[in-house]
Design the sequence.
């Protein structure tokens, strides 16, 4: 089955830019989606289809996808951005509709 | 506003059964695929199962195939997950989640745009 690789943690100072990567074999050919999960809460979709933002998600959140790496970029990071972030794709080689990465903890 | 409310979690012995339910509101229920995603304590997200808006198609993760059954009642805006032969590694918070579309065979775009708050299932003797 398809495997997504994320760094366990990313640390950034307030006001700086955080980049969270999601690696996969030719992931650039897939649509990548990103979720944020605050401690003790349910996940929330923050980017879908590589780079589209759902309504209500600030434009500080941006996604890109090329080659073997997709990236979630969070600009002007705030303390409230501390959370776990998960990437997700559809695995076309199996019936696994949603494949999640292992998650990255963002520390501000 | 989309709302997904799970219920049915609890403590169950290994080998036992449990039935989870999710009541939805705020959208045209039959037009969307829904499913379950679980998260073991301190671990990441794991997709469990999905059912098309029509109810005509279901999908399962390998880890639950043959033990879990997903169903929906479009007249009651409810989906359910019947979990049998439960094991300790099924212990997790189970989230009900809505896909962005109704579910189409051959679709390559699958993502979850709304989630419930989750219900905890603990499998232990």
Sequence:
């Amino acid at each position: 089955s398809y495997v997504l690789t994320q760094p366990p943690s990313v640390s950034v100072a307030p006001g700086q830019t955080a980049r969270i990567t999601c690696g996969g074999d030719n992931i650039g050919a897939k649509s990548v989606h990103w979720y944020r999960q605050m401690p003790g809460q349910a996940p929330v979709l923050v980017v879908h289809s590589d780079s589209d933002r759902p309504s209500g998600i600030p434009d500080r959140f941006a996604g890109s996808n090329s080659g073997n790496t997709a990236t979630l970029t969070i600009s002007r990071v705030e303390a409230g951005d501390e959370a776990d972030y998960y990437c997700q794709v559809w695995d076309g080689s199996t019936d696994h509709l949603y494949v999640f990465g292992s998650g990255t903890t963002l520390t501000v | 506003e989309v709302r997904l409310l799970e219920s049915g979690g609890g403590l169950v012995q290994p080998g036992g059964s449990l039935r989870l339910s999710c009541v939805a509101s705020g959208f045209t229920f039959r037009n969307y695929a829904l499913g379950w995603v679980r998260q073991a304590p301190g671990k990441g997200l794991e997709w469990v199962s999905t059912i098309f808006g029509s109810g005509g198609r279901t999908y399962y993760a390998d880890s639950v195939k043959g033990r879990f059954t997903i169903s929906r009642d479009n007249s009651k805006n409810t989906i359910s997950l019947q979990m049998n032969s439960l094991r300790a590694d099924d212990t997790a918070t189970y989230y009900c989640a809505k896909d962005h579309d109704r579910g189409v065979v051959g679709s390559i775009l699958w993502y979850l745009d709304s989630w419930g708050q989750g219900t905890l299932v603990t499998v232990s003797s």
